[in-house]
User: Fold these one by one.
Assistant:
Number 1:
Amino acid sequence: MLKKLALAGALVVGAGGMGFWALTAPAPIDPARLAALPEGNAGRGEVMFWAGGCASCHAAPGASGQDKLKLGGGLRLETPFGVFVAPNISPDIEAGIGSWTLPDFANAMLAGISPEGEHYYPAFPYTSYARMKDQDISDLFAFLKTLEPVQGATPGHELAFPFTLRRGLGLWKLMYLDPGPAVVLQRIDEQLQRGQYLVEGPGHCGECHTPRDMAGGLKLDQWLAGAKAPTGEGTIPNITGGEGGIGEWSAADIAYYLESGFTPSYDSVGGEMVAVQENMARLTAEDREAIAAYLKAIPAHAQGQ
């Protein structure tokens, strides 16, 4: 009888383990959808490149000018879970993504899955990129392929157990990977729709400006309310109209700040926002105005923590 109970218990544990293993398996995009991806346009892809701030993480730290287009990686991102190192995404065959196909790139951007079938850590903001349009993904890939290959792989991430176990990220994705909008706007027009897309998708503004829970997921009920800096030092500002935010800024003020780096009080952009503002300055005036309109339309929150 004891042997039978032990066997039954083992089967239950084994079935539970198998269920967890299946539940957390990487779920690639439907191959039919990937096969239908349109051919990319590098010119349009450059817009997505700057909107997404790709150079801010993947160019060498401190790079400027044309060196921003050399995407050899190496930036260290300090978080409560460990240090993540931005990889080489140049077209280099050995160290970068030169051997990738468009489906490889789409799975990485939209589902957080590597060409080897492993989960990517969400330090790579695919939870935002999941909201991007297939055409924009294809265009961005086309642009990246035009850039200069950079030799040399970056060091690995510096993580402690259990964060070294990527399979558990499948459960995290079930909780937090959602291609739906971060907020529901009270009204919507073409400009607001464009602004929402740029901020919530390629711009991935919420990844820094929204507080996170203990598991590292975004608290969408405090969308863009600001947060503690991941390094534990300082605060990322509130960019809603709530207390401690930018409620006194007009849409024109926001658009001008994104273009010039100057606030309504004639202060200048500083810190990590410098690179973001420089990227935004490369967008069209219409896109910056759309971003400003969206930020004026979202729910107001007090400074997040």
Note: Residues 2-23 form the longest helix (22 residues).
Number 2:
Amino acid sequence: MTDKDNAVFNTTRQPPNLRSGLADTLMAQIESGDLKPGQRLPTEQAIMVATGVSRTIVREALATLRAKGLITTHQGLGAFVSNDPTPRSFSIIPNDLQSIDEVLRVLELRMGIEYEAAGLAALRRTGEDIDRMQDRLDALDKALEEGGYGAQEDYAFHRSILVATQNSYYSRLFDTFGNIMVPRQWARLDKMTSAERKRHAARMRREHHAIFAAIRDGNESAARRAIRTHLSKSTARFEELRDASTSS
């Protein structure tokens, strides 16, 4: 491997989440053409030396690239940029969400998607859509009342909103999130007191009911406001968790 081949790694930054930072750098170099289709990547040792990260971090970053179809590996030969490295589909895999900052990025993306979807759902929802959303909301209420996370029920309710847009591309895109859209390990409900958990559950129920009521009533602007309020408050909570972990 030549010095030129290794040079692209020499400016790799080391953010708090090193695996994510290395994977992002490699993806950017592949997408920009700095690393060309069919080109062999430097060895794990060479990447470690160039970036200063551990072998474990390097292997996790390469595993992320393999999962996205950007590189292939050959036994005894190493890793190579895929001949067609342009991702054919968008996905968010669990390894993508290893820090609160990454969860916040997903929430930011969801804001853009769901803000528009809520408005469309209010304009286009059918009786069947309303019944479906009500069922999903009831399931979420039950999960929260029983003290659970309600992650799957939360996902199902939000997905029912996208289905109500009558535009299948919305729900198909949302399916790339799955129920990892807010990973349970970051919810930190186990760190809350009983009173805090009750307040959290009450807030969740109140916000979801406001979203449902606006869509059910066909109020486009209220539906947009309700979904923005809900996701903004979720974002604020994760920012507080991030700041608390940074200061501790």
Note: Confidence is low (pLDDT under 50) at residues 1-7, 10-16.
Number 3:
Amino acid sequence: MKYTYYGQSCFLLETDTKKLLFDPFISSNPLASKIDISKIEADYILVSHGHGDHVGDLIELAKQTKAQVIAIPEVIGWVMKQGIENVHPMNFGKHTFDFGIVRMVWATHSAGLPDGSYGGNPAGFVLELDHKQIYFAGDTGLTIEMKLLADLYKLDYAILPIGGNYTMDVDDAVIASNYINCNKIIGVHYDTFPVIEIDSKAAVESFKRAQKLLFLPAIGETIDL
């Protein structure tokens, strides 16, 4: 499986047969100015919540790729108003897709939509695909509900926000990695704005002290999972 980072919380997971894009926010992110979104391909687009820095390119990419959009029902309602019909609404439960199993899980955050309407609850996802279990936390603070994931899964990777202010910071993400019992963490939601800038070297060292690995791929970089 391959992971490609597009900045903020946007990334692509590629299996042998499917491409899953998450929280598409690229064209309005100055740090991702070298990414040509016209070349992005996806079979599915998973959306954690409706804030602009997670759905900025959602409609354009959904139209371009014809991907199915997976999100909380309120986000799906907004998406359909933009003319997107290939959708799959979820709430906090599981569903089996042709690429694997998705469980929508709790996140602590707010969740309005770009037009100011109600965006439902924010969420994260646990994916079982290609013989791996991967947790994408979405935008969230540290929450005790994360401990439940250690009872349900043996996570291979966790994709966690680490920028602070709006979400967990590095220290909280280390605690979260203990809660979910996962030793391989990919950081997202950092450096895009001044208020969420981090010391990347110090962040890696913080996870190293906890005997864990923190991956911080550059924007546009692809790593093997």
Note: The radius of gyration is 16 Å.
Number 4:
Amino acid sequence: MSESIFVTVPEHVAIIMDGNGRWAKQRGLPRTMGHRKGVEAVRETVRAAGAAGIKYLTLFAFSSENWRRPEAEVSDLLGLLKAFIRRDLAELHRQNVRIKVIGDRHSLRSDILGLLLEAEETTKDNTSLTLVIAFNYGSRDEIARAVVSLARDVEAGRLRAQDITPALINARLDTAGIPDPDLIIRTSGEERLSNFLLWQAAYSEFIFLPEYWPDFSPEIFRSALETFASRDRRFGGLSSQAAAVGT
């Protein structure tokens, strides 16, 4: 993977891939065609992230709320996930990409869960880009599961309630060991998180793009990274300019 051309490269970029259905509707195509085109955008984005020097790329692939969609569409989405892993796993492994899956695994079908576990196991020792796939993921559910885990420790006497800290909560989340996203991108013109990485997004930068996900190209990605590089991240403190004036 080539060296990054950006002065300030986000360590972790998270993307809400939105607009597949609307992309298809604009073209008089079935929604399934939008999802299939979206998979192509995923492949290009993974390559572009690696080339830019990004270490973590999180993609919101399937939310815990997506099960409410029509059964045929859910079936197609699951089929695309399975096809993506079967077709692309070997190539991602060759590119030294590590795959990490976040989300509730307990209710997943055995065939889907097996593929996700295989992808994680096959790539666990890779050291380049970490591709985090948020599948059957909802941030409130993730936080609730973390709280239940801590409550059980308190109940069992392994932990005192007054000793619970943000760091302890963070360690019980699905993203434990993964840095918070520096940048969150959402496509399709919508400007909300939709139950995605609510805890982890405390100090993230946000970029909302009008393009639908199937149209998300490496060029659009690079433009978003340039916008990120131009921002002054303060994390509750002074801007770098203000700090320099005060010295």
Note: Strands lie at 12-16, 56-63, 98-102, 130-137, 183-186, 205-208.
